[in-house]
Design brief:
Glutaredoxin, 19 strands, disordered N terminus, 3 domains, 26% helix, 6-stranded mixed beta sheet, 10 helices, 4-stranded antiparallel beta sheet, 426 residues, alpha+beta
Length: 426
């Protein structure tokens, strides 16, 4: 009897290995509808004892697997949102981060970037197996797994919102577009691959939507050759102008884009990727200022527009301190961070002040989110505060903030804005 049982277990193991081998040798990997295999995750952060099995995270809970890497700006910027979602749905959902990069590189990234230092999601590092099972070339790359351990969707990060998460948890049909990677595409290669970089001084391309590429943008020094690169794939024209005017990393709010209605009618993003664009420029031996000026001229010429900077008064949401007691200062144990709901209240303990107010109050969930955010408290340490579980208006929010000597208000302030108009020759 024992021998028979042993033979059955061996056969099951062999079958699982064969299925895993088949999945990883096919370029598409596991597909929507497949039931996930169980295997060991050997190197982990923010998870004791430092290793686990994949099914540990899909045990009567839905699971969102987020593939990322440290040079991916979209990946980094999505972490506060993922952290907020995890805390809100902690009883029904697990979020697991996965990267091929080393533990040391990941720890350095989280410690260097203060805006994500509070994020403590379980993370698989130095991964190879998960990348074989779920192959992709671009990130963020999201695998949506239901409570039945079946893959419900494979998407990019733009599909992550509270409504879709609730559908996943409830086992309902997500109906999300499948992310189809162009497996030949590399983020660090030119879009036109037949160029010899050592012979190139300036390279530029603008195209319409390219299926299979993620929505991403950024301007950076290429680590291999020192070229200054402005790169965007499948983004709206507004994102291109934010980059061209060097506002991309300055907390720029889209309310500071002043655009003619005729321009919006002509270039408004539509379904099926219409009016989203790809842009790729490489400069050798030039400054960011000169590169941005070139990019502005190229975009104006391509879209038949004229654009310029101007100083205007614009409406803002201002966070400020009332009184001198600073009752928002955290008294929690160092390193302990908590977010939980208590009736109609969102309780945030030992978190950075900017995170709950800018990210949660002004994260696109409210009618007033398009306004520029200003933190005038001058306080950059951790706090303990209470916020309404559902945000309705300023008066409602300030009812909670008054107990912490804080308030938010609408005010007009002078800011640099980007004005975009139709060319007079139209």
């Amino acid at each position: 009897m024992i021998f028979t049982k042993y033979k059955v277990e061996v056969r099951v193991f062999i079958i699982n290995v064969l299925l895993l081998s088949i999945a990883t040798t096919q370029s598409q990997g596991m597909l929507v509808g497949d039931r996930i295999s169980d295997f060991e995750l050997k190197q982990m952060l923010n998870y004791t004892p430092g290793k686990a099995r994949l099914t540990d995270f899909a045990n009567n809970k839905a699971l969102l697997v987020d593939f990322w890497f440290t040079a991916c700006a979209s990946c980094i910027e999505s972490f506060p949102k993922l952290d907020s979602i995890q805390k809100e749905f902690k009883d029904d959902l697990n979020i697991l981060l996965v990267t091929f990069e080393s533990k040391e590189k990941v720890l350095k990234t989280f410690s260097t970037l203060k805006r994500i230092s509070h994020v403590k999601l379980p993370s698989v590092v130095a991964d190879t197996l998960m990348h074989l099972i779920f192959p992709h070339t671009t990130a963020p790359h999201e695998i949506w797994i239901g409570k039945d351990r079946k893959i419900k969707a494979i998407t990019d990060h733009t599909s992550i919102n509270r409504d879709n998460i609730k559908l996943l948890i409830d086992g309902k049909d997500l109906k999300l577009p499948i992310k189809k990677d162009n497996m030949e595409y590399s983020l660090f290669d030119p879009l036109v691959k037949n160029m010899e970089l050592d012979r190139m001084f300036k390279y530029n391309i603008i195209s319409s939507n390219q299926p299979g590429l993620p929505a991403s943008d950024g301007m950076y020094i290429h680590p291999d050759n020192g070229f200054l690169r402005a790169q965007a794939t499948n983004v709206d024209f507004q994102s291109l102008y934010v980059m061209a005017y060097n506002q991309w990393s300055k907390g720029f709010n889209y309310g500071r884009l002043i655009i003619d209605s005729s321009v919006m009618q002509r270039l408004q993003e539509a379904e099926n990727g219409r009016n989203t664009f790809c842009y790729d420029s490489w400069w050798k031996d030039t400054s960011r200022i000169n590169a941005c000026t070139e990019m502005q001229n190229e975009l104006d010429h391509f879209f038949n527009l004229k654009s310029y900077l101007e100083i205007r008064k614009i409406p803002c949401i201002v966070l400020r301190q009332k009184g001198t007691k600073k009752r928002f200062i955290s008294t929690a144990t160092e390193g302990r961070e908590e977010a939980y709901y208590k009736k109609d209240t969102l309780c945030l303990d030992n978190v950075y002040l900017k995170y709950p107010v800018e990210t949660i109050l002004n994260y696109g969930r409210h009618a007033w989110s398009p306004f520029q955010f200003l933190d005038e408290t001058g306080y950059d340490e951790k706090v303990t505060i209470r916020l309404p579980g559902k945000f309705e208006d300023l008066k409602h929010v300030n009812y909670f903030l008054k107990d912490f000597d804080l308030e938010i208000a609408f005010e007009e302030r002078w800011f640099e804005v980007v004005v975009i108009k139709d060319n007079d020759k139209l």
